[in-house]
Amino acid sequence: MIDTSTWRKGDVINLTGVVYTARDAAHKRMQEMLERGEELPVDFKGAFIYYAGPTPTKPGQVVGSIGPTTSCRMDKFIEMMPKLGIKGMIGKGPRSESVEKACKKYGLVYCVATGGAGALLSKRVKKCEEVAFQDLGCESIKRLEVDNFPIIVAIDFAK
Amino acid sequence: MKNITTQEISEKVSLALYEACHNLNSCTLNLLKEAHSNEEDITPRTILDQLLENAQIARKEGIPMCQDTGIVTAFVKIGRDVHLEGDIHDAINEGVRDAYEKYYLRKSVADPITRLNTKNNTPAIIHIDIVEGDNLSITLAPKGAGSENMSRLAMLNPTDGIEGIKEFILKAVKEAGGRPCPPIFLGVGIGGNFEKSAEMAKEALMRLNPSSDPTIAKLEAELKDEINKTGIGPMGLGGKTTCLGVFINTFPCHIASLPVAVNIQCHANRHVEVVL
Ligand code: SF4
User: Fold this and answer.
1) Residue A87 Cα, gap to closest chain B Cα (Å)
2) Which of the residues A24, A76, B17, B184 has an alpha carbon 20 to 30 A from that of B210?
3) Enclosing domain of residue B189
4) What is the ipTM, given to two decimal places?
């Protein structure tokens, strides 16, 4: 299990582990499911959520171009994050104060990947499997196994 | 009279879109290299390193440099001695459809209200101009939303002058911060009217060289310096490189108005011109 408690803002991390893609539409749908008391189709425990919607996978590729999308659009879903049991979120750009507070409170990290480096980042994905919300196309939830995936810590939860 | 068929246009458009999404132009590449050698801190250097490696992988392995392969804008210049066999809009849209399907590009165009995806990345946004000669030139620019969403337009007071213009532009860049994937390029349209300024801002981004008007070229250079002094840096994480270039187009305007439009372009500076 990855220990994120020692991560500090500005650290350059090469992440090896499990990451799930989810962006606007998937967040909205998960929130609605939780409100209705339904079970989520994915167990996110111990993983990261990556705000990303890749290009279609070409034959012979693991995944298409897969850089981060702007994170602040997902700020309004921050209270749902601790319920998923994730370690943190990966995206690009600044977050609101509420996200900063929630990270400290729930022990989450927010990291940025380099926006527009989708080709490079795709090479660090070793396995990709669509696991939920297939109907959302590029916005579906995909389970990625990443190897040395370069991220920079933007929000830590040091006391 | 030169005859051009819709099929010829579609084929060229499709190829140009592949080129734009996979091969970062050498001018932008050189600017990124220069920026990298300029930076001292680890964070901006790491990011610029990644962008350079990314461009290489995209070109060599045919993976789009960015997953947001955008909505397509086309600036079309039709020579008045050209005869088009068929509708130019259909021809361009057919090229877009073909490229986004064939080259596995992301389809990112939706109805604004229902949000239903059109599933083939059409329609493109097409600006048509009639010019002298018998050439048809089309500049294609697939552009992502991260940078486009940070665009701003203001109807300034004519007496605000150059200082007011600069202030507005700098404010737009600072508000955008790390969101449009800096280092950025800036397209600026000054004058005209409401829609003219916006179109000029977008079209200015199709340039790679400074304005031929020395006064405007000076303003472009000054703005670039001032933006780089903000310290926003690559991805907004701090550094010396925030802006790789400012391009300003101008047009006369009403005595009582001063429209200024700012269109932000990320480092994935994708535009390709085809001439038929
Ligand atoms: S702003 Fe540009 S580089 Fe960043 S994700 Fe959007 S298209 Fe890609």
Assistant:
1) 22
2) B17
3) 146-271
4) 0.92
pLDDT single digits (tens) B105-141 = 999 999 999 988 999 999 999 999 999 999 999 999 9
What string of H, E and C letters represents the secondary structure of chain B? CEEEEHHHHHHHHHHHHHHHHHCCCHHHHHHHHHHHHHCCCHHHHHHHHHHHHHHHHHHHHCCCCCCCCCEEEEEEEEECCEEEECCHHHHHHHHHHHHHHHCCCCCCCECCCCCCECCCCCCCEEEEEEECCCCEEEEEEEECHHHHCCCEEEEECHHHHHHHHHHHHHHHHHHHCCCCCCCEEEEEEEECCHHHHHHHHHHHCCCCCCCCCHHHHHHHHHHHHHHHHCCCCHHHCCCCCCEEEEEEEEECCCCCCEEEEEEEECCCCCCEEEEC
- C-alpha A70 – ligand 1 centre gap (Å): 9
For residue B60, what pLDDT band results from cuts at 50, 70 and 90?
Answer: very high
Closest residue on chain A to B41 (Cα):
A10
Domain assignment of residue B257, yes or no:
yes
Active site residue A23: no
pLDDT for A1 beyond 80: no
Which of B86, B110, B143 represents a domain boundary (last residue)? Answer: B143
